[in-house]
Amino acid sequence: EAGVAQSPRYKIIEKRQSVAFWCNPISGHATLYWYQQILGQGPKLLIQFQNNGVVDDSQLPKDRFSAERLKGVDSTLKIQPAKLEDSAVYLCASSPTSGTGGLYGYTFGSGTRLTVV
Amino acid sequence: KNQVEQSPQSLIILEGKNCTLQCNYTVSPFSNLRWYKQDTGRGPVSLTIMTFSENTKSNGRYTATLDADTKQSSLHITASQLSDSASYICVVRASGTYKYIFGTGTRLKVLA
Lengths: 117, 112
Known about the structure:
Chain A is mainly β. Chain A has 1 helix and 11 strands; from the N terminus they run βββββββββαββ. In chain B, the strands form 2 sheets. In chain B, strands 2, 4, 5, 9, 10 and 11 form a 6-stranded mixed beta sheet that branches.
């Protein structure tokens, strides 16, 4: 089975520019997560989707970050405008929501490393 | 408050030696605990997943233990290799949710 796909792998932008990340979860996974991982720290949940609805976006800086999952499959995360402190790895993960799939199916993508200069 | 704490924060060992990483959690009600290996610049990769009823689970040279009474877990790495150099993250999921609480990780460096 194909894993969680993310693109781009790397992105360098200047502060105040905009950037977008894309995630394609494992087929059939209803739950999709976006995490921000600053160097040396554990991942921090930004937003969690259940199909195309938002379950938790309490830690998403909504003044500059937005995310959508229009058809309940792919998702995009956007930052506009970017700040220096947004430099991090942005991880996408997906999971089924029931049965043993819910236990063993939680899978990460390789992440997008963002550098804001 | 649901929290996951890991120790040590970083560890340096010589190739071939064993080591043990610790994870303490306060997540309740508990569903499962996972250990992940994360190479620099990559996404975390699952090593083990343990539910409430499991005390020990192995994956090659990695052995995880879980004491649900004391809310502690450990990850033991046997005969370390240079490729074991990575961050190891403990993640706990609360029962009835699809939320995962992450520890800050232990950064392991294996030297030749």
